[in-house]
Amino acid sequence: MVPSLGHDTSSSSRHSQVPKRLRIPEYFYESELKVAGILELSCAKPSDLNNPIHPIFYYRNFHQLSLPTYETLMPALRLASLLVTEVHCLEWWVFILNGHRLPIPDIKKRRSVLISIKPIMAHHLSAAKDRLLELSDCIDFRFTAQDSVYGMQIRSRAGRSFQVIKFSNKFQEFIEDGGFTNSSVSQQLRFLFFFALNMVHELSHAVFDTRTDSVLSDEPYTDHDVESGLLYREMGDSWERFIFGCKIQPLVGEDSYPEECRYGLHRFAPSAHYEDIAFGAVPMGYICALMSKSRWKAVRKKGICMLKCPEARIHARDIIVERGGEEEGRSSKRVCPSSSNH
Length: 342
Known about the structure:
Elements: H1 30-35, H2 67-72, H3 74-85, H4 87-98, E1 100-103, E2 112-115, H5 122-135, E3 139-144, E4 151-156, E5 159-168, H6 169-176, H7 185-209, E6 221-222, H8 223-227, H9 235-244, E7 247-250, E8 265-269, E9 278-281, H10 284-290, H11 293-302
Parallel strand pairs: 2-6, 3-5
Antiparallel strand pairs: 1-2, 4-5, 7-8, 8-9
Helix pairs in contact: 3-4, 3-7, 4-5, 7-9, 7-10
């Protein structure tokens, strides 16, 4: 059955970007975030992940990146590897590699929906693993000056057989200029988590682009989103919703400045109508858990539900009266780069 599609909320370009209308850092207050455990956890410890790094993320695939910087990023690369290889996560890659693309009668826009394979069999999982391994020999990660994006996937001149993913050089500069070393454990974990998220977000675009029926400027809707009433053609965002149940971004700062995730992350669950978008802060305890072996042991036992970002105890719309106004009975100090929360 062809879904009925109305208003298309898609971004026309393939990169990790949040529409400017959705950036609402003014709606969160530092005092609230501190009390809710969003910014710092005294019990936070460095990641203990020790799983193998997937060949896609081997050092050889990072263009002009120093070995010390790569080693600093290794916890993020281990997390990204789990998001690619764990069996419950692997279902996403089966979906974008083998899902059936159903055309929608629309001559001008050439829209389509990607339909899941059901049931997913062992040979589907094995084939997806093989395709990902093949991609590890023809992918290049680069850090470059980006305009208002954290990452971007592009097709190289060699065609869809070779993929290039560019990240904001602010990721690299944050490490090499000492910002990472001078951050708290909680801030470091958030930075590593956010980099891993962006890597796999962009990888979703790259893997889909290897399909013979891919069209660079025309990604399909996914049946997961359509069933939820979302008309949004952005493969990376669809992956975030599939894994985390929402999209996750830094609380403050401008796009392409990922170091701002030191000051907290927010989640938002989009809907068919912009006015119904629910914003909330991402608990630091959730990020600590994802960077630990124990959580991934639980994922293997209980499934992908263990990766869903919990509903925050603090929601943007609940703590502000109006943009630019004073919050009655509470501190009006907003979370910002100048805030002292190290």
